[in-house]
Amino acid sequence: MQSIFLDTLQGKKTSRPPVWFMRQAGRVLPSYMKLREKYSFQEMMANPKLAAQVTLLPIHDLGVDAAILFSDILVIPEAMGMDLTFTDKGPVFSNPLKNEIKPEMALQPDEKKLEYIYENIKEIIRTKPANTPLIGFCGSPLTTFCYMVEGISRNHTFPEAIAMLYKNKSTAIKILTAITDLSITYAQQQIKAGIDVFQLFETHAGLIPESLYKEIMLPQVKRIAKAVKSTGTPFIYMPKGIGFGLEWIKPKFADFVSIDWQTPIKKARKAVHKKVGLQGNLDPRLLLAPQAVIEKELEKYIPFGKKNKNWIFNLGHGLIPQIPFENVKFVVDWVKNTDWQR
Ligand code: CP3
């Protein structure tokens, strides 16, 4: 049996859309919470057996059509020498770049510091059920830069990081280039270790004007995309808040684009090149509502899913910890059991 997820990515006709969720390997799973009683997030990432086990929890517990590597986008700054801790309130860097007089000089990229992740990938591949595709990922340069400059995510607005793009553009570009260079090596090594698909997480595309994104960020993003696509690995781009920038996304750049919950999926379909597939875009907070309410919203996707075979069902952003596991499972079962009339 082939994978419905890979078939869809390759443009083949399938009886239903494949389904997986961003942040599926995390705190919505009771099995994950049980492991967290014993181990910290960073301990689990550093242990190949545990990292593989957590990666595969959503396959066994939810029945999703793809696994995503259990790791974090902030392993790139960590491999550039930044000291990172995951606290209950989120990730914290002890030495944010805003405190450095010459921030570009403070970074010491060391690709060897990422090698443990390739070992995790190999362990996942050794232990995963046959035909379960594995998604690898990294953060997009802007999103990674925001955390590196500010050190924490206060209200997710990152004013000092964004200000640096205007006040100290050449320094910002040097940092963004260093992030991109290491991300390219990282993506290539994930592919070598055996991932099937690569997703680039640009959570904060919407923080800057479209023109600035196009000028400074897009060239870096395209370098990562090119490095991935040149290996024949499907490339999914998730630019949350990109707005009209959806029009830039051509088949040469990305195979699929993940649509945020702000953008109506039908409008996204019109904006994005027709040969680029879509992923998305249910509002994760809907999953806090009763299942009858969820089902009503899900039904609105039927006409879209009937017409559009190059579509992967997902959320418009990641699952949040408060969401009940039963509601996540309800959505997976609904997608799998609905007659999509294809
Ligand atoms: O999607 C998956 O399940 C795979 C693993 C994954 C994690 N983080 C695990 C994680 C992925 C793909 C990410 C991406 C990530 N990490 C992004 C981009 C996507 C997005 O959701 O916006 C960002 C911005 C981060 C940075 C980050 N890591 C934050 C802000 C936090 C704290 C808030 C939160 O959502 O938990 C993390 C911690 C984190 N990353 C956890 C997990 C499972 C929680 C760790 C725990 O306490 O157990």
Q: Which key phrases capture this entry?
A:
single chain; alpha/beta; TIM Barrel; seven-stranded parallel beta sheet; two-stranded antiparallel ribbon; 12% strand
What's the Cα radius of gyration? 19 Å
Order of helices and strands: HHHHEHEEHEHHHEHEEHEHHEH
Helical percentage? 40-55%
The best one-word shape is globular
**What's the CATH class label?**
Alpha Beta
Strand portion: 5-15%
**Class computed from helices, strands and strand pairing:** alpha/beta
- In terms of per-residue confidence, which ranges show pLDDT below 50 for 5 or more consecutive residues? none
Total domain units: 1
How many DSSP E strands? Answer: 9
Ligand catalogue: coproporphyrinogen III
CATH-assigned fold name: TIM Barrel
**CA-CA gap between termini:** 19 Å
**What number is the mean pLDDT?**
97
Number of helices: 14
Q: For the report, how would you describe the main beta sheet?
A: 7 strands, parallel
Architecture per CATH nomenclature, i.e. the level-2 architecture = Alpha-Beta Barrel
* Major beta sheet, strand line-up: 1-4-5-6-7-8-9
Question: How would you describe what is shown here?
Answer:
Helix content is 44%, strand content 12%. By secondary structure, it is an alpha/beta fold. The chain has a single domain (4-337), classed as TIM Barrel. α11 links the parallel β7 (256-258) and β8 (277-282). The longest helix has 25 residues, at 169-193. The model has no long low-confidence stretch (mean pLDDT 97). Coproporphyrinogen III binds next to β3 and β4.
